[in-house]
Amino acid sequence: MKSLLIFSSLCVLLVESKTIIEAKQSVRKFPDGFIFGAATASYQIEGGWDADGKTENIWDHMTHKEPCLIADCSNGDVADDSYNLYKRDVEMMRELGLQFYRFSLSWNRILPTSFPDKINEAGVQYYNNLINEMLKYNIEPMITLYHWDLPQKLQDMGGWANPHIVDWFADYARVAFENFGDRVKYWITMNEPREVCYQGYGDVTKAPRLNMKGIGEYMCAKNLLVAHAKAYDIYDKEFREKWGGTVGITLSATWHEPEGDMDADLAETINQFEWGQYAHPIFSETGDFPPIMKEMIAAKSAEQGFYRSRLPEFTPEELELVRGSSDFLGINHYSTFLVRKIDERDSFEVPSYWDDMEIVRYQPEEWEGGASSWLKVVPSGFYKLLHRLRELYDNPPIMITENGFSTRGGLEDDNRVSYYRLYLDAMLDAMDEGCDVIGYAAWSLMDNFEWMQGYTERFGLYEVDYSSPERTRTPRKAAFVYKEILRSRSLDPNYVPDTTVMTIDGVNS
Ligand code: BGC
């Protein structure tokens, strides 16, 4: 009976995504005011790891100490060399016709001691050059303050598990607002707290690989949320009136589907742990961590002999500071998982995040996917996610800050073209129903250092040749298709690009 249920729910999901895959042969328009961009992150593209006074971050530290933790034993020492090649990057933005470009700042490049006692002029100059070059061509800069490259010195003092990081981050944010806020109107405090905390503190799949299961990720989550809120508060009180920008946070939001009809509440529980953990404190009316998380972790902690819940509590002041601390909700979405209840097949460490949830997630092998093991093509999951976010948080303005597909390289990336079309189509479905999606950034402008996978997984609209000292960038088919979507402000499933020559035209010329 159970297997029948599983089979039928799989079919439903496949049929649903199939419906979307096969539907909409007509051209669909994007609304006026909707903005398109592309995204990158400092450690993944800049290189110049010790250039002009920059000091060591946790990724420098980890990849230098144990190179072969990374799939191809590589690192971000040179990466795409954007520290030197930023003008070519801006040229690519112009070729694509981007309205905005999302990039992140390297904390160590700006503050080599980690603190504001010494501001590195060369680091500030680098970002000024990049920003000014973009503005020359009407490309709006969108800055992420923290995209995973914490100063190693701060990590040595506990990093996100140390509550003092709230002030350390707030100081860094203030320096960034002061130096760039006159020209930068879109700010994102954090990229994907879930990956920072769960993967870096509760597991070993991102630096600093602390593996403090069931404890580290929750301490990190609380401190990170308060640090985010403090930075938001600083902007709000000190800079907003003068410069009129907006500040948000970017969450990774994977969609989860129940394996069978009886498991619907499981999908809701894991969604609450995975992204509700960060969205609920900021975007819900009541604030605080999701009630289901609080209950489950408190009960487990008591059972396990802890004197208090492993999920730290916000003080009433912190709760109020965090509640409402975002002008928009940044969403990085890539894929969907099925979920089922934990059973005798599974064994999780105790305590741990997964044991707290008592849920297992997986993706059927037959689902079509990219080069990344976790990236399966399920556009209906994107639609459902947007729908649920609208329901849960009173239809907040949503900025899609990342969405994209990985290959092993090559310019003929038809799978990536098809992924972008399907996901944009699903996004338009959600928007037609009233979801307030205000913009979309493709991940990524170009290939880059894909964290533990090094350069083995490629997400770029532009291919980067890592064997050439110039790090030559060449547009893939998807770049031509994306350019046409932006030019025509519409999605034409039948458009066939001429990929012989990439030109600069339109608004950014
Ligand atoms: C991150 C990016 C990463 C991408 C693909 C997101 O989780 O923000 O840095 O490269 O996904 O894995």
SSE topology:
Blueprint (H helix, E strand, L loop, with lengths): L1 H21 L5 E2 L5 E5 L2 H4 L12 H8 L16 H15 L3 E5 L2 H4 L10 H16 L3 E7 L5 H5 L8 H16 L5 E6 L1 H9 L14 H28 L2 E7 L2 E4 L5 H20 L7 H13 L12 H7 L6 E4 L3 E6 L11 H5 L1 E4 L16 H14 L5 E5 L11 H19 L4 E7 L18 E3 L8 E3 L1 H12 L1 E2 L18
Parallel strand pairs: 2-3, 2-12, 3-4, 4-5, 5-6, 6-8, 7-9, 8-11, 11-12
Antiparallel strand pairs: 1-15, 9-10, 13-14
Bound molecules: beta-D-glucopyranose.
Beta-D-glucopyranose binds next to loops.
Model description:
InterPro entries: GH (IPR017853), GH_1_N_CS (IPR033132), Glyco_hydro_1 (IPR001360). Belongs to the glycosyl hydrolase 1 family. Pfam families: Glyco_hydro_1. Residues 1-17 form the signal peptide. Keywords: Glycosidase, Hydrolase, Signal. This protein has 509 residues and is α/β, with parallel strands linked by helices. It has one domain (2-25, 35-491): TIM Barrel (Alpha-Beta Barrel), CATH 3.20.20. The chain contains 17 helices and 15 strands. It has helices at residues 2-22, 42-45, 58-65, 82-96, 107-110, 121-136, 152-156, 165-180, 193-201, 216-243, 264-283, 291-303, 316-322, 353-357, 379-392, 414-432, 477-488, and strands at 28-29, 35-39, 100-104, 140-146, 186-191, 246-252, 255-258, 329-332, 336-341, 359-362, 398-402, 437-443, 462-464, 473-475, 490-491. It has an eight-stranded parallel barrel with strand order 2-3-4-5-6-8-11-12, surrounded by five helices. A hairpin with an 8-residue loop joins strand 13 (462-464) and strand 14. Helix 16 (414-432) packs parallel to helix 17 (477-488). The longest helix is centred in the middle third of the chain and has 28 residues, at 216-243. The protein starts with a helix and ends in an 18-residue tail after the last strand. The site of beta-D-glucopyranose has 11 residues, from loops.
